[in-house]
Structures are given as C-alpha cells and as structure tokens.
C-alpha cells in the first residue's frame, strides 16, 4: 500500500536525532532542550498528594478551574491583562499541542502564515498539515532583530496569521517595545491573527523583562498567547502548557482541543495550581538561568568558538566558522562523536536548510556538566 505523506520534506526531528546520537556515543547532551536536574520535591509531593486523594480521572476539558484561575492571575499580575479563566484559558498537553491546536483552529487551505527564521521546528509542519502556506521572513543574522518592512512586504490578502516567538529559540533574542509597536501598526485594522509562543517567558536576562503580547491592547484581541509549564518548572517530560486568548478565539481553540486531546493530566494540573501560587518560583528563574549562561560562557570564552549574544531562553548559539568549514550537520556530528559534546545544528531551523556555521547548546545543565562540556570544546583548534 502506498501512503501519501502530508509532510514530504520532514523526517525525524533534529532534537530526537541528536539526543539519540549523544546516547549512542556517550557524549554530554547539550543538544535537546531539557534540564539535567530534577524539579522541586514540593511539586512532586503535591502531584503524589493529589494522586493519592483520587484526582485520577478526566479533568474538565479546558483544564482544572483552579489552575486556570492561577494562570489568569499570573498573566494579569505580570502583563496587565485580564483573561477570564472560564472562557479564555485552556490547559494543553505542552506548548506543542497548544501551537498545533491554535494553528489548526484558524488556518485553512491556501492561507498564508508568516514565520520568522530561524524558526522552531514545529511551526511549519503545523501550517502545512492544515494546507497553509508558510511565508518566511528572516531575522537579521547579526543580532536576530526584526525587520518590519520585510514583514509588511510579505503581508497579502491571504495572510491569516503571524507566529512570533520571544524569548526566541534558537537564538535567545527578545522582542522589543518597538517591535510590538511595529506589529500593532502593521496589523491594526486587519484580521491578521498572532500566535505568540512565549514558552521561555520567565527566562530573561540582564534585567530584561518579558514583553508578552498579552500586554498589548491592540494585539491581545487577535492573539493566542502560549506558554509551557515544562520550561518553568523543570518538567519538560510532563508535557503541560496553556493557551490564553480572547473568548472568540478560545471558542475555536477549544473546539479543536477537545478532539486532539480532550483534556490533560489531572493530578499534575491540581499540583501546578497550588505550586504556581509561589510566584518567586518563576520570578527567580531568569537569575537561575543567567547564572548558568554565565558559567558556560565564562568557561568557554578562551575557545575558538564565537559566542553570540543571548538575552533569554536556555540556549546559547556558537559560531564555529574559525574552527571548521564543515556544514553544521557534519560539524555537530563531529562534536558529538569526536569531542564528546552533542549540540543542535541550526540549518533545520531554516527553510533552505543551509549551514550558517552555527550550533546551539542548551545550558539547562548542572554547573559541573557545563564546565566539563566547555573543557572539551576548548580543545577545538583554529582551522
Ligand atoms: N516552542 C518552543 C520555542 C520551544 O522551544 C518548545 C520546546 N520545548 C516548545 C514550543 C514546546 O513546548 P512543550 O514541551 O511544552 O510542548
Ligand atoms: N524545545 C526543545 C528544544 O528546542 C525540544 C523539544 C523537542 O524535543 N521536541 O530543544
């Protein structure tokens, strides 16, 4: 039997490939983004508590009310917008499902969706599987800033949505107040929707604050704001996230959500609802990861690798152009197999799949592991 693939250009995700390679070659895995330390004991105890208490059956379809209340309160406190917890917040199986569901609920065949390159790997398949057309706008390769004239040039009467991601994976750049103003100006008076992937919202550095699109009066009414508990609470394997959007968008989102997953893990939702009340847990996350960024950057500063600027997320880009002429896939394989450090090549984040002599490392690791990996990378010589 011949099955026509809906995603002909897609094989296995680069995150799976590199983690597999790291395990196979016993390399330090700085590739796929996940912490190598455990989440807080108190959170584990809360999950266990709710499991023992019998909260083990289906949760309400949109999520446990207390958790939706906690999410709503957090967004209002941090970004100044009220989302009604009954009609405007949905708890999802990770940000991945929230992204898929948001895109699927609004994108029809032939619709164009603008994305910025380099782009996180799930956006394009989400668009394509709905018959949509991804329209690529490059970020400035120097500092990964936005060029809004380019965006305006790409907008057409088929533009259904724009996907924004800040803090940005893989570059670690943040949008600015001016970017938000430009986006407001560019889309004002249109029906263009925004999918705002804010999964690293609490991981910002050097005094910078997250600028959520929830904070924009003009944009919030057309935006799905998406976040992930996995990044905030060191629980990527639990696959829990949420989407906040105005009632008319949430209505469509939920229509889809009920048939994609219906509802998500019950005891974990109750646990997060309680745990989230300790705001210091997420407010201190930026400093926690800034320290890790600095440990890694300091340990590697005398290497031949050029360190790109990183304003947020737990990723650091490294430019290896003075070390090797190999394309990034080959160089990543070399680093994993010969040097013992697994990284992510950047080319899969681009439509043209071309190498730009850049790799991404994840610094959500113990300080010892970061120093050990840096010591290995220091051995790289000039080409
Ligand atoms: N968006 C971005 C930018 C990410 O880096 C990730 C990574 N995990 C996700 C979405 C998916 O989040 P989740 O694990 O909650 O599905
Ligand atoms: N978001 C994580 C990263 O960028 C990986 C998630 C995944 O493996 N799909 O590394």
Question: Could you write a compact summary of the structure shown?
Answer:
The chain is α/β, with parallel strands linked by helices and 383 residues long. The chain is 39% helix and 15% strand. The protein has two domains: 14-32 and 284-377, Aspartate Aminotransferase, domain 1 (Alpha-Beta Complex); 57-278, 3-Layer(aba) Sandwich (Aspartate Aminotransferase, domain 2), CATH 3.40.640.10.
Descriptors:
Aspartate Aminotransferase, domain 1; binds glutamine; Aspartate Aminotransferase, domain 2; 4-stranded antiparallel beta sheet; alpha/beta
Q: What does this protein look like?
A:
There is one protein chain. The model has no long low-confidence stretch (mean pLDDT 97). The strands form 3 sheets. Strands 2-8-7-6-5-3-4 form a 7-stranded mixed sheet, sandwiched between helices. Strands 9-10-13-12 form a 4-stranded antiparallel sheet. A two-stranded parallel sheet has the order 1-11. Strand 3, helix 5 (123-128) and strand 4 (133-138) form a beta-alpha-beta unit. The chain has 2 domains: 14-32 and 284-377, Alpha-Beta Complex (Aspartate Aminotransferase, domain 1), CATH 3.90.1150.10; 57-278, 3-Layer(aba) Sandwich (Aspartate Aminotransferase, domain 2), CATH 3.40.640. It has 383 residues and is an alpha/beta fold. The chain has helices at 14-24, 41-52, 65-79, 94-106, 123-128, 148-154, 177-187, 217-220, 229-232, 247-260, 266-275, 279-283, 285-300, 328-339, 367-377; strands at residues 28-29, 89-92, 112-117, 133-138, 159-165, 193-197, 223-228, 241-244, 306-307, 315-319, 341-342, 344-345, 358-362. The chain has 15 helices and 13 strands. It is globular. Helix 2 crosses helix 11 (266-275). The protein starts with 13 loop residues before the first helix and ends in a 6-residue tail after the last helix. The structure holds 4'-deoxy-4'-aminopyridoxal-5'-phosphate and glutamine.
